[in-house]
Backbone:
């Protein structure tokens, strides 16, 4: 039985489509949704940086956080309109790792996420979060909603 659906979002049209699918599924199953946005920290942010670089990175970090908050707020609003219980999570890190970790810690029964519809070869070179997640050893099933 599905009682919790994890919906990762990056604010893209693909993610929004997957969220709407998850909300429709949650209505049918009478289950809750966990909305997750992962702020993808570039490698440079993990290293010690000078004050000058910090002045450049802080506005970037602020922009990424605001974009993540906007993305989850929109999905939360749709959940509220449809009477779906939902929880919002914001985290930072490598997206596929954070999604897998949050799915396990929240005891999610299903992950519903979008795909940009790239070919397998393109995903290898472009680093698709969806592709990376489905190839990890995760106990949580993943439902991919294509564009």
Residues:
């Amino acid at each position: 039985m599905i009682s919790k659906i994890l919906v990762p979002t990056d604010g893209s049209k693909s993610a929004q489509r997957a969220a709407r699918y998850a909300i429709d599924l949650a209505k049918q199953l009478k289950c809750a949704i966990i909305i997750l946005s992962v702020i993808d920290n570039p490698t440079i942010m993990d290293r010690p940086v000078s004050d000058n670089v910090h002045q450049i990175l802080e506005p970037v970090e602020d922009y990424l956080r605001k974009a993540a908050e906007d993305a989850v707020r929109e999905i939360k609003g749709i959940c509220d309109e449809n009477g779906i219980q939902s929880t919002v999570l914001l985290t930072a890190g490598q997206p596929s790792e954070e999604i897998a970790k949050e799915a396990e810690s929240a005891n999610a029964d299903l992950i519903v996420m979008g795909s940009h519809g790239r070919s397998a070869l393109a995903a290898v070179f472009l680093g698709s979060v969806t592709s990376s997640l489905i190839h990890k050893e995760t106990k949580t099933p993943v439902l991919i909603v294509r564009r």
